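Can you give me the bound-state structure? Components:
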Amino acid sequence: MSSLSMALRLTPYLARSNGSSFRETGLRDAGLPILAFGTVTALLLTVAGGSQVFWSWSDDIAGTYQALAVVAMVLLIIPLLTLGASAARLAARRRDDRLASLRLLGANSATVVWMTVIESTVLAAVGAVAGAGLYACAAPFLGLIQFRGQAIGSHAWLSVPSILGCVLAVCVLAAASAALGLRKVVVTPLGVRTRQAADGAHWVRGLIAAVVVVIGVVAMGMLSSFGAFIVIIAVMGGCFGLALLALNLMGPWILRLRASSQLKRARKPEQLLAARTVLESPKESWRQVGGVAMTSFVGVFVGVGMAVADTMGGSAGDETALLVRDINTGVMITLLGSFLMVACSAGVNQAAAVLDRASMLVALDRVGMPRKLMVAARVKAVMSPLFLVAGISAAAAAVLVLPLTGAVLLTRPIVFLTIGAVFAAGFLLVRLAVAAGTAQIGQVLARPERYASMDS
Amino acid sequence: MNAILHAQQLTKHYPGSIALDHVDFLASAGESIAIVGPSGSGKTTLLHCLAGILRPDAGTVTLNTPSSPLRLDTLGDAALSRLRREEFGFVFQQGMLLPELTAVENVALALMLNGTDRATSESRAAEWLGALGLAGMEQRRLGELSGGQVQRVAIARAQVTGARVVFADEPTGALDSATSNEVLDVLLRSVAANGRTLLVVTHDPNVAARCQRVVELRDGRIVADNGSAVGSPVRPAPATNFKGAFNV
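Here's the bound-state model for the whole set.
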């Protein structure tokens, strides 16, 4: 019997569970991955639905809107893919114990891989269908957003084939991530072996990023010497891309530096635990909050740029004024969208982490560690990198357009107030999501017998 | 010897079964006591009731502190949590230490939770690790330590706060016999040297044989106790007779 056919026969058999075991493990095994995939699909459909309005226009300025929509989608697709990959890893990780038992019974590696891929894909399909339903509920509200002075209305609705395409894409993403994710663990008959050493974030990343930034600054400084308008636009676009590349290269390294510094200065147990959590895997921390880095950068960069354009274009026509306003709207929506994805990712990851370490939390509770301290450490481990990443990115953008930043601060302070309000709303969103995730600690400690033997 | 922990008529039910059935138990300061019995006999439930982890359905648990006796069964969750931090130490089968922390941080955390500053905590934690044979390994993460070394870290964590009673639940259950003996040596010697009381739940006759006193439970009742300080339902017996209790 081939590995695939064996996996196809075993997967439905193992998926069956009686009522009580489902109540105990259902949330951990299926609920969280389905929730995560549902969120990914709903956000993907919302972004696609919101963007398609720009392709329904065909006048002279439509090209500008379409180009900007592509940029916004690119900015959102990265955190969306990260969230999708987190959901897939979550789905695959749920089955660790069962997979090890199967290896003990003689199933080979290929069967285990196929089973993981099949289970992840099924969970993704269920979540994606639920996410499509969520999108259907959200679309009427999405239609209220205004571009070019009009609500986008029914343009926010995607066609059925498009929705099915998105659902399929989420399933493919889940399958691919599950297969790739298993490469990082070795499922042996004795258990699932994972890496023990903390993953590093080498200083070379910082060096490369610094070189990239220098190239960008030099290019920006020589901007006027490039002559042709199209070349200037291309160089500016290139510099923007380099800045994003530098952010991604430096991200994990900066988080590690900051966490190392916090570790040295830690006085309270929660500070020590939070710093160690980030140091355990700076790349994982970056994956959770990195999406905000790019959008924070763009939020400030474009926000300042548009404020200047609006000021200088006082005599421009209505169409230009509308374009500037619409870009501002788009930037703020993109910024909020990325915070929403980070919030979902953080909430799902925290809930999964709590359930993964349930027996450890029960043990810590027994030795007298206060519950609020466990929660505080987890909150700090997410919010501290988030504040750092958003702050550095926003500051980097402000520095890049420094003369303009000063001018806008003096002439259009409302721009900074708006950006600040969006950031505050985003932080609040993430904090609420982390609170929802860490609420699982209370659930775990309320029924410790589920996670630690007490009957001997 | 002075009584430190005294349980009277402890009763605890689980749906469909009785885990503890009117159990009387007294532990004296400095004693090492093995609690043995077949699976489901109520060993861990007794340990958890004595440690203030579980509330008994009936009966009392009293801890004699230097200031005054404390009734554990009447304390609130926060007070019990504080009591477990300050008066008790715990060693679990799997160590249950935080893998992201180093060895010294895991031990120091117990002191930091009680409000000791970090520098003092880490200094005292390092002393304990050194005394338990882990000198030079303070900065290692748990993944870089063997199973026996991890249990030594857990033993240090259990005692670094000055806990007067150490509770151990199958502390050598996940170790091979040679490592198990080493860890048990460390546990018994450190507890005795510091005048602590040790209560250890075990299936291992070798562990029980090395404790001063062995208490055997069956169906939620104490059926044998070779050093009981309280009356019925206790039947004194020599330690060597307890081998039969491990045939589970």
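A couple of observations. The first helix of chain A runs from residue 3 to 15. Residues 18-23, 193-198 of chain A have pLDDT under 50 and may be disordered.
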